[in-house]
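Work Package 4 report. The design task specified in the project plan requires that, given a folded chain encoded as structure tokens, an amino acid be chosen for each position. We show below one input record used in the internal validation round.
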């Protein structure tokens, strides 16, 4: 059986991690433009203004803004059927609350989409991928303000109307469930939320120093739910053929032991991290377990109004898309050995290997997740829109890059997807994360590489941005040509 005939093979990018040109052609400051680079041992730092003589990874990134034709041609050589990318909100509305859009920003994405379509590559567009205009954070505390819903709807309506004949697949927010966590990095990137105290800081601070207010965070997340639903409603008014989806970070959780308390803790972690946001966006209503969680944690949920309930019900999504990198374990034992991961860490699984950055490799977890989602949301199309392996790549004297470790990672995960398709899962596409090297969102590093294509750009700001093909480039090309049969 294997993958469907018209399966959407491709790769995924985020504008703030690839484009650069952070202040060109009228673009306003976005949140990542104020975040300095870091590494495994140095926490990420943010300042409310640009510091001189400091390195900001997003300012030039890998220069996709000026090299998009070359990069899309390379994607076409691999045989891409789809390219997931994001529109940087600050290119279209530089301050977020502008009266009129920036024509130069709109024209740039016209050119990018035209280049994709030239090679029969279907754009899959994320409307907000951690790229909120900084002015909306500073002036409105991001989605904590109801006003930001209106600014978002104005922005997405502009995009829908402009690109309605070029883009069919849309995602409203990247990893929207980042808002369920107390990590300030996730809250700021995902919700644009900062406390008034933090906004008044005049010196750089680490994300660990930022304050988390759970009630404010869930108000902001609710406002994102409403904004997403309104976007779905508006998109369907503009083009009935639009397929508009969510995007969640799906992280498979296992109880660390058969201790019933580990199992119950795992259940809560799984439902609130993986299921909660999707249930609201797929079913159009808050699940009872989420309301119970609010009561248990003294979170007043009177922000869920009757009018909002109607909007959520009307604006349900057309497809479910998600990122999958790792699995983690849940333990009630405070002394258990911990390990990191995408957005959030957990207890170490003794049965799994991990990357250099502590991300546990678990292709079986992807198969489990696909079957779970297929059962939870019957008949809803599914798409894996992020999956990849960050590693240190060595350039040999002849310029070759032998990244067998990356090929092994993709091979095992694609095999898991293939088996899920055999199980009857309605999987329609797969876009690997970082088909070309980009800035890591979590660490701000270029040293941590994901791509099939190497970019000569480094964390000290050196490099000429030249592109070269890794061994995985040729492997993925064969995989796509064979529709996943040759892996």
């Amino acid at each position: 059986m294997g993958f469907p005939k018209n399966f959407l093979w491709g790769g995924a990018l985020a504008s703030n991690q690839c484009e650069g040109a952070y202040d060109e052609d009228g673009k306003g400051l976005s949140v990542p433009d104020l975040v300095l680079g870091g590494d495994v041992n140095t926490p990420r730092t943010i300042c409310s203004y640009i510091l001189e003589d400091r390195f900001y990874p997003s300012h030039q990134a890998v220069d996709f803004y000026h090299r998009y034709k070359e990069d899309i041609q390379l994607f076409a050589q691999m045989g891409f059927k789809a390219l997931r990318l994001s529109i940087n909100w600050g290119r279209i509305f530089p301050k977020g609350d502008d009266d009129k859009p920036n024509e130069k920003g709109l024209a740039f994405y016209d050119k990018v989409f035209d280049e994709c379509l030239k090679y029969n590559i279907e754009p899959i567009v994320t409307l907000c991928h951690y790229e909120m205009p900084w002015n909306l954070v500073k002036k409105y505390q991001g989605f904590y303000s109801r006003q930001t819903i209106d600014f978002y709807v104005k922005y997405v309506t502009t995009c829908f109307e402009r690109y309605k004949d070029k883009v069919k697949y849309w995602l409203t927010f990247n990893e929207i469930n980042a808002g369920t966590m107390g990590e300030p990095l996730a809250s700021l990137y995902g919700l644009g939320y900062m406390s008034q105290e933090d906004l008044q800081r005049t010196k750089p601070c680490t994300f660990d120093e930022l304050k988390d207010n759970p009630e404010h965070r869930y108000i902001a997340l609710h406002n994102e739910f409403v904004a997403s639903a309104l976007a779905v409603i508006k998109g369907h008014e503009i083009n009935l053929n639009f397929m508009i989806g969510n995007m969640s970070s799906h992280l498979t959780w296992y109880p660390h032991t058969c201790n019933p308390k580990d199992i119950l803790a795992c259940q809560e972690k799984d439902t609130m991290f993986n299921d909660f946001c999707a249930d609201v966006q797929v079913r159009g209503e808050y699940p009872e377990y989420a309301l119970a969680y609010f009561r248990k944690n003294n979170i007043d949920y009177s922000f869920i109004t009757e009018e909002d309930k109607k909007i959520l019900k009307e604006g349900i999504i057309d497809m479910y898309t998600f990122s999958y990198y790792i699995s983690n374990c849940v333990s009630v034992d405070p002394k258990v050995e911990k390990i990191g991961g995408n957005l959030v860490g957990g207890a170490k699984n003794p049965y799994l290997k991990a990357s250099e950055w502590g991300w546990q490799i678990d292709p079986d977890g992807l198969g489990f997740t696909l079957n779970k989602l297929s059962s939870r949301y019957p008949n809803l199309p599914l798409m894996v829109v992020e999956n990849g392996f960050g590693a240190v790549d060595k350039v040999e004297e002849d310029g070759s890059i032998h990244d067998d470790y990356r090929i092994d990672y993709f091979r095992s995960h694609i095999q898991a997807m293939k088996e899920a398709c055999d199980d009857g899962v309605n999987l329609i596409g797969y876009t690997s994360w970082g088909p070309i090297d980009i800035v890591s969102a979590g660490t701000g590093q270029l040293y941590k590489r994901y791509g099939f294509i190497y970019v000569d750009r480094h964390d000290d700001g050196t490099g000429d941005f030249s592109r070269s093909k890794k061994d995985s480039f040729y492997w993925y090309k064969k995989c796509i040509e064979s529709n996943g049969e040759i892996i």
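Residues 214-238 form the longest helix (25 residues). Validation will be extended to a larger panel in the next phase.
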